[in-house]
Amino acid sequence: MCGVCDIENIAEVDEFTEADYDRIIHEIIVGVITVYSLDYATYSKTAKLLTQGVFKGYGKTITEVGVGSTDYKMLFDLRQNVHIFSAAKTYQQTRAIEAKLLELNQALTEGDRIKSFEEFRKDAKKILVDYNKNYLRTEYNSAILQSTSASRWVGFEENKHLYPNLTYHTVGDQRVRYSHAILDGITRPVGDKFWNKVNPQNDWGCRCMLLPSDSEVKVSEVDHINIDDHVNPLFQFNPGKERRVFSPKHPYFDVAPKDKDWAKQNFGLPLYL
User: Are the C-beta atoms of residues 5 and 141 closer than 8 Å to each other?
Assistant: First the structure.
């Protein structure tokens, strides 16, 4: 099933208010919030929301499964991944606004005029809306879909003695991308390395899925295609095998060289809330 899917529960995603944006901008201006003192409230809202997406997609919360069970280990790692992702996201939006503030403070000109404070606020507000509304909606939906994929993978592994193969399926409607439609019907063993990189979702909004099968393995021209042409590099991993929602290749993790050690400390933010 692929194409641009509807965003689920948009009301749940609209967690940030105008008051939040005004506070964040003010605290960055006065130096309370910096890339070395990130806003805990922003991080907390983001991490909690994405964790909700993980539990919704997986079909269970971490408190509903036995400690040490396969589900517990999977949910533990998925939850940790979205917390690390949320910290990197908070860092990047703060970094972007600080860059705009630096422009203002250095009185950089645009044409023949000085950039005004109100223009800075407008630019900062746009950054916050993009990160905490527009991007977050997509990320929340992705957390649901990737966690669903991880949950299904656990089932594939447990039942491969009954259904040794997996078949790639699209919805088959007019919104299916050609790059995904060409994968429809591919059948490979559960343990085939093909599924390490081709495991829906294969792009933002992808609705494709894998289904267990005892049908014969189907070899086709797909064996000779460039996976990069069919799967977004940010999604070329198996959420169930790697126990992650977001790829380490995501641009949020592209931190300034001087901040790499800070990133290893989750930017000073807790890993669990």
Answer: yes
Angle at 172 between CA 169 and CA 175, to 5 degrees: 115
CB of 169 within 8 A of CB of 184? yes
CA distances from 144 to 49, 100, 190, 251 (A): 11, 33, 22, 20
pLDDT one-digit tens code per residue, 121-157:
999 999 999 999 999 999 999 999 999 999 999 999 9
66 is a domain residue: yes
The domain tally of the chain equals: 2
* Closest by CA position to 88, among listed 255, 271, 243, 273: 255
In angstroms, rounded to a whole number, what is the distance separating the alpha carbons of residues 116 and 95? Answer: 20
Band of pLDDT at residue 29, cut at 50, 70 and 90: very high
Question: 3-state SS string over 77-117?
Answer: HHHHHHHHHHHHHHHHHHHHHHHHHHHHHCCCEECCEECCH
Give the CA distances from residue 225 to residues 42, 144, 160, in Å, rounded to whole numbers and listed in that order: 42, 29, 27
Full domain range(s) for residue 237? 162-241
Identify any residues that bridge with 189 across adjacent strands, giving them in sequence order: 165
Q: What are phi and psi of 138, to 5 degrees?
A: -65, -40
Query: What pTM does this model have?
Result: 0.90
Instruction: Locate 251 and state its tokens.
Output: 């641009």
